[in-house]
Amino acid sequence: MQHRMNIAKRRALENAAYREGVYPTRVFPVLFPVHEIEVRATTRTGRDYALIDKFLERSIAEGGITTIPHLAEFLRLDPVLVDRAVRVLRRIGHLDPHGDQLVLTDLARESLQANTCYEIRREDRRKIYFDGYTSQPMHRRYYQSSSPFLAPAEALALLGKRFSRLSSFRPFRRDALTALARNPDREKFNLPIAVENPQEVQPECVFLPLYLVRTVVRGGHERYLAYSETNGSELDEELSALCTNLPDIGFALQNETPPVSQQEQSVRGWLERYALAGREFFQHPDGSWQADLAPEDFEPATQRGIRDVGSFVDLGTVVVRVWCQDHEVRRRALLARAKSLLGVFRYRPQDRADLLRMAGDQLEFPDLDDGRLRALATEAGENALIKQLDQLDSELKQGT
C-alpha cells in the first residue's frame, strides 16, 4: 500500500509540474467526502421494429385507425395476428393499456420518429456519486470495475500518517439528482440517457483518496490540483476547481502549513541525510523548493536513484524538486524513464508522443520524440533500449 501510494503521489507531482506547468509547494493526501446515492430508475432500450408492429403504429398515427378489426381490414391481416401484436405493443408501453380504442403513447411516437422501437425496463438500480460539499456529480472516471471509494471504516484505517480527512457537514442536496437527469452532458457523470426517472433510494457517506497538489499561480494565488490515488496521472478539473475555490478546504489545509523557516529546516535535514556535504538548495519565488545535487550523488553506492532527477521528494510538510545540472546524469535519468515507459507504450500507444514530450520537459530535453530518444540512446551506448524500441514498433505494426 505504501509503495503504491508513493508512486501515485509522485505521478501527481510530476503531472502538476510537467503537464500543467506549475511547480508544487506541497502535496496533501486527503480523504475527500463523497455522497454515495443509490438510485432506482427505469431504463430505455432500443431495437429494430418488427415489420407488423411498425405498420400497426403508423396506421394508428397517420391513418387514425384505432380498432383491431379496422386495422386488420386496412392492412389485410388476420385479426388474430393483429390482436397478438397489439398485446405486445401494450406490454412494451407503446399503446394505452385501457379501452378498446388504440392510442399511441409518447414512447411509441418517439419510437416512430427515431425509427427505433424503444422499450422501458422498470427496474434499474445504480450508485451515483456527488461531492460532499456542493453535491455536484463526480466524473465517470471514478466508475471503474474496482471502485476507488472507501466506506467510513476503510477510510478510518488510512487516517494518521498516510491520509488526513476533509470534513463536510453539508447534507446531500435533494435537487442534485434531478439536475443531473436534466443535464445534457449527464453521460459524462455516468448517468446514460437510457436511464429515466432516477429516484433516490438511500444516501451514504464514502471517501475518495485524493492527492491535492498545492501550487502558486500568477498573482500569488494558490491553486489546488486534484489527483485520485488510483490515477495520479490524470487531473480532475472539476475537483481541482472545487478545492481551489471552496474556503472550507482552503482554511483546513492552510492550518497545516509550517512557516518558511521550518520548511527550510526540513529541506536541510533531508539533504544532510541523503546527499553529500555542500549541496545547495533554494526556494523559488513561487514558494517551491529545489535541491541541486552533483553527479556523484547518483553513483551506485549512494542512496539516490537516477530516476529521482527531475522528480520530487515529499517531506511531509514541503515538497522538494531534485535536480542536477550535469547533462550526462540527466540523459541517464531520461533513458531510465524511457525504459520504465515501454510497457505503457505497448498498451497505450496513443499516449506515447505525449509521454515522451513530458519526460523531455522534465529533464530539459525539449520537444523529445522517438528520433531524439534514439539519438540519445545511441550516444549513451544503450543498444538494448534501441532494440526494445524496434521490437515494440514491430509488434505495433503487426497489430494494426
- What string, H for helix and E for strand, traces the elements in order? HEHHHHEHEHEEEHHHEEEEHHHHH
Mean pLDDT: 86
- Domain module count: 4
Quickly give the structural class. alpha+beta
Main beta-sheet annotation: 6 strands, mixed
By DSSP (H or I, 4+ residues per run), the number of helices equals 15
**Helix coverage percent:** 40-55%
| Separation of the first and last Cα atoms | 37 Å
Number of strands: 10
The portion of residues forming beta strands comes to 15-25%
Q: Describe the global form.
A: elongated
The gyration radius over C-alpha positions equals 30 Å
Low-confidence stretches: none
Describe the structure.
There is one protein chain. The chain is of the alpha+beta class. The protein folds into four domains: 2-41 and 123-254, no CATH class; 49-115, Arc Repressor Mutant, subunit A; 260-325, Alpha-Beta Plaits (2-Layer Sandwich); 328-399, no CATH class. The chain is 41% helix and 24% strand. The protein has helices spanning 2-18, 51-63, 68-75, 79-91, 106-114, 152-158, 176-182, 237-245, 247-254, 260-274, 327-340, 342-347, 352-362, 370-379, 383-399, and strands at residues 24-47, 117-131, 164-165, 195-217, 221-228, 231-236, 280-283, 289-293, 312-314, 319-324. The strands form two sheets. Strands 1, 2, 3, 4, 5 and 6 form a six-stranded mixed sheet that branches. A four-stranded mixed sheet has the order 7-8-10-9. A hairpin with a 5-residue loop joins β7 (280-283) and β8. The two termini are 37 Å apart. The model has no long low-confidence stretch (mean pLDDT 86).
